[in-house]
Structures
1.
Amino acid sequence: MFCPKCGKEISDDSRFCEICGTPIQQAAPASQPVAPGTAPQPAVVPAAAPASGGILAHIKTIGISAKVAVILALVAFFMPFVTISCNYNDKEEDIVTYSAMDMITMDSYDASDAESAYGTAQKGEKFGGKFNLWITGAFAAGVASIVLVLRNKKTVPVVLDGVGALLVILTGASFDSFYGLDELNYIESHLQSGFYFMLLMFLAAGVLQYLYEKHGPGSPVPTGTAPVPPPPAQIPQQQPPQAPPQETQQSE
């Protein structure tokens, strides 16, 4: 080829003119010809492989753990929820321990025993026996959550677990005022293991279920990965028509 400036002949692979030093722009390589009858192949962007570690590696375990946490939250309704103690005449004693299920079934405690400090202070009275709406709502939320989780419903179980945790907190915070204990200066209530375990399981179930729904089966494609395009359709190559065979003429 020749230099476009000085016109001297130079080699085809030169990047600069050997005479005047003018940069030589190389022509782009010609594209490969496409065979007749076939569609051009589109450029395929390789899809990023999903991360093999992290939360995706344990997504099945997270889904199972979410179900177990809701079941344990319901089991906690039969554990000691609150203990009521009496301080009277310099004598302190625990007079009754209630589970969350006792507050749902309106179980009561007979305090007429004269040997107890509370029986001496308030002879013949019964404590408890009052339906608690807050803890009943928490139990209903837990039952509904596990039913919907087993039926593979989404979003609603997470909300129900959060509602259950909120109702458990309201039950513990309003226990004294709900049962009128704040008017008795010699009566105290103490939250027990059932309250804390139930609250923890409701919160754990909500978080685990949220992670399972976000990263589990049926979730959207994670950010940073490209969907794999379908293979291009191949156009069948048409064969050129063949000429009919010619009959040979026999010589007479």
2.
Amino acid sequence: MIFCFSGTGNSRYIAKKIAETLEDTIIDLNVKIEENDYSPLQTGCHVIVVVPTYAWRIPRIVSNWLLSTKLLGAKRIWFVMDCGGEIGNAAKYNRQIACEKQLQYMGTMQIIMPENYIAMFNAPQVNEAKQIVEKAVPYIENAITFIKAEKPFPIPRNNLYDRFMSGPVNPVFYRFFVKANAFLVDKRCTGCGQCAKKCPLNNIKLINGKPVWNKNCTHCMACICYCPVKAIEYGKKSKNKPRYYFEQLKIK
């Protein structure tokens, strides 16, 4: 069984590629988390978690869901993490999740995909994003090969920088940066509600036809990147930056 959480579509694409080859089932964690659904799941022996990288670890909302949900029948777990640059020492914390779930840890694989975190970085233009995805395909296929053979992934890089970013930096980043109070909407907003529909935490409500953000935000960037008229900004940090979501690449 494949568990997938995705903000702007990168992880969803990877999960679909894995599912097609392995003829496996995808469980959409966006829906599970949005509905506060922590009911037990019959998974089969193999569990594959496909997620983006948030502050050099898997998203907290995903690790919380995994730790709170009984995975019936599961024996082994692989983690596939896409990122715009690097995953740090995320493998250490994924191993801890596996240990707590009493599952055999089968490793963590990094896949470079187009950047979407425009609250801090620049997202690529469409043509550049397509090239990044094209380069990612062999790595996705490599991950599939290991899973299909029931073998652990190769051990990822683990230097002092990786340990620092996934260790001390991660909680600091969540405390000081992962907030919704910088999101704002301008006069281009049509009140379509797309941002509210895309939010996996039900953190956005339409009031008088305009989105209002509450405090429960994971910085998935779905609201700002999927806005069809680019009416949402993250303070001044997103000004004049391209928005990115996978579907705009029109890659099957």
3.
Amino acid sequence: MQPRSGQLALTAALAAGITLTAFAQEPGVLGAFAIRSDHELVGGLSAVEITDGGAGLVALSDRGALIRGQITRDGAGRVVALALAEPELLNARDGYRGGRAARDSEGLAIAEDGRMFLSFEGDHRVVLHHAHGDTILPAAEGFAVLQPNASLEALAVDADGTLYTLPERSGDLDRDFPLFRYANGAWDESWTIPREGRFLPVGADFDDRGRFFLLERDFSLLFGFANRIRRFEVTAEGMIGGDVVWQSPHGGFSNLEGLSVWRDGQGRLVASMVSDDNFSPILPTELVEIILE
């Protein structure tokens, strides 16, 4: 989900333009690489996975397109080139293209065995994606009460293959976010993620130590977007911790969505995010990467 009004988009663009170049040079920020393409489906990026030790990219558009690419990096690990393949247009239910709401894809997770899972927020569902179609997982009971344009925004899979997804909105400022976990053909809805302030979830991933990272964003009409990453430990009783391990000021970056946490060849833990331009010519489409450790 993104702010839809032109006024909000313009405010965010102006705010981001003030500080983006300077902030991208701050310690810990590996780089902000502009993604450019003439293809009509390349935009509105809502999720990302970095593969092949930093050389591969899989991104997801909120208009139902899967985008793959090959990354070239310099000696410091910064992205210097990105070659994109032809986007793959996703189906809605039962093999039909469906309308925009039915193909509002928001979450992306790739398991260790290569299986790819996608979450959607218009027609609330999680699917196992195949080259020629999708297998829709059974719906959790809690999906039925999620808001139409703010549901399954973040999706992650752990080393055991358990899926974790949560909506962008909890329904109230003092209400925690429901966390849905899928394993062995069934959903568990007993866990939550604590809500802190105005920040809303937009991406999630696990690192190689089994820790859960959550990307959240806030929007100010005057100052644009702020982004942060919280880190949780997974226990038998639920998520604990929630320390903020990175945060940008309002206007530091644009509308960051999607999170891929991976370790590079230098042993550094890197968080990669993509900015959703909402298919607007005044917002950037970027791959933003920061070093968490």
4.
Amino acid sequence: MKKIDQVCIIDDDPTHLFITKKYVELSGLVENIIVYKNGKEAFDKLQAIFRASEKLPEIILLDLNMPIWDGWQFLEEFLKIPIQSKIHIFILTSSVNLDDKIQADKFNINGKYLVKPITFGEIKTMLSKI
């Protein structure tokens, strides 16, 4: 099975961040993990990586409810970047609100909406399908 070069986790909750990062590491399917604490920080850094023609992550695990920029604000701006490579974006949130799921579909997140707490099995299955 091909290893994923890089996964990006965007989450402000230290507990969920620790768990998600640990599960990604334990999967053995990922080479590198980058972490950002809010959507604005993630956008700025990922845009800089794109502008420098460096390799962007293959997967982004995105929380919705964060300070500064939430997940929706991040998506609004990030999807404007003319990235040619395929990036799989998964919403990873504690929100079970139907409106959030509908909003996710507007961003073509179809089926990539995971509710916290995430399990190791869910992470491993998600990563192995990429």
